[in-house]
Amino acid sequence: MADQTTQTIIIDAPPARCFDIVLDVERYPEWAPDIKSVEVRGRETDGRAGLVAYRAAAMGRSTSYVLRYYYGTNPLRVSWRLEEGDVVSRMDGDYILAHAPGDPASTEVTYHLSVDMRVPLPSFVKRRAEARIVRTALLELKTRAELSVAG
Q: Per residue in 38-92, pLDDT tens?
């Protein structure tokens, strides 16, 4: 059974700016501390990343995985599915961005992630890893977006 998490955060930057950061996967190592390298292996016809290989720090070691990205009709949503991974057997998720309620200059970001590991891990280890992933996905994104607006 997959471990799942969904969290939402408000970012003091416009949705288009936040989405640009999410889509710029090649720059993730600049703001996502656990992402060590990114290689775009395929692009969509509009130039957005389609197939992306990552190397990341995970629980004291290095892990590699490849994600396939999907872009639907919602212009501020991106989803991904695991194509291959060395320690994960499933890693599906999405970012959904929208204008923050009552503040069109800010963004409400919802992040969903579902992960299955190849090897069973103790619950406390999974919770710690989940917290770290969510921190990067939301809090580090917030920091990056708000700094870019201020600067």
A: 999 999 999 999 999 999 987 678 899 999 999 989 999 999 999 999 988 999 9
**H/E segment holding residue 50:** strand 49-58
Q: CATH homologous superfamily for 3-150?
A: START domain (3.30.530.20)
Considering just the CA atoms, what is the radius of gyration of the chain in Å? Answer: 15
Pull the structure tokens for residue 9: 């955060």
Please say whether the beta carbons of 58 and 35 come within 8 A. no
Cα dihedral 9, 108, 97, 42, rounded to 10, equals -30
pTM for the full predicted model: 0.89
Q: What residue segments make up the domains of the chain, in order of their start?
A: 3-150
